[in-house]
Amino acid sequence: MARFEPVSTAPVAERAILVGVDLHDGGWPIDRSLDELERLADTAGAQVVARLTQRLDRPVPKSYIGSGKVEELKGFVSRLDADVVIFDDDLSPSQQSYLERALGEPTKVIDRTALILDIFGLHARTREGRLQVQLAQLQYLLPRLRGMWSHLAKEQTRGGIGSRFGQGESQLEIDRRMIRGKITSLRRELRELQERRGVQSKQRALSDSYRVALAGYTNAGKSTLLNRLTDSDVLSEDKLFATLDPTTRSYELPGGRRLTITDTVGFIQKLPHGLVEAFTSTLSEVKDADLILKVVDVSDPDHQRQIDAVERVLAEIGASEHAAVTVFNKTDLLDPAELVAIRRRMPHAVFFSALTGEGIDDLRDRITREATAKDYLISCILPYDQGSLLSDIRTNGHIIQEEYRPDGMHLVCRVPARIKSLIEAIQV
What we know:
about 425 residues; alpha/beta; six-stranded mixed sheet; four-stranded parallel sheet; about 20% strand
């Protein structure tokens, strides 16, 4: 028999209570919204032990939920030994401070934005991704500083030693200056990275490399699709926001033309504007794309609401007018009759399963059609000393016919406008 019992060093999951308010605003059903919030909490490593909901015409200014619900929530926290209470909507700093006082220490009160920021902090891998998360976190923290120093303010009201220096207010102002300075520094560094990304983007544009971006609701299967198309091994997990940093892979069309496909951060309902702003440089991969594939989980009952959420973010970043194709993924999980009905409703969409590969040829054909839609069909004679131009045609165009003759290579090909101009310049 062992002298000592082994002690587990694994982190203990925090016990969380979810709180949602049904505002009758025509948005997501409260149960479905809390389902998503629970998945977010699970991604952050919390264990959801209860849910609490309330129907209101508008949030209560002081506490977001009614005073009776606050008392009910206190009972839940006490009986279930909850560590954290997560609200499905954004709380104002004063609401968060009031609720934390009402529930008592050490129970934390956070909102959906804070939860998403926490997940982003866990999953950001690149330098740019981490900077973006830090910026969003500091912007969220800045207006909440006063409540965080309330314990020092209480010392002042009690009087006595340590109460005559105004330390609460002084520390508050010091922290505000430090955070504002850090925000300025982060914005400067992100601008430099964005300028660098802009130079790379211009270089790709000059090379006629056709750019495809995958956009869609988080967990719609974008990374799995990228892996299926390009035979790569990008991280693909059944978790919300598994992918934050953009991942670009090269892809060759059936005719030999090469293009790039970029997987980007997933969208979500109630995605805070501050996060969209912080991730502008990452989302520029979508804005600068020649084609956006809007990936949708067709098996999700709320897929239309997910499409609407994606459309709102695309409009916010100025990409709503881009060439786009709606791509319904996970058809293997849908009842055949339901799939037929959706196909009739969305005749121009592409349907496939990234997991099984069914329908992937239809998607490849659609990408090919979109990528070559603005190409020019030309017949030309290319001198034999124009090997670099021939390589350019093979990479960024499609050779239909190729014949070697004494006077040069006779080609029939489809090429972008830039290559068409280069070919015309050497024709006699």
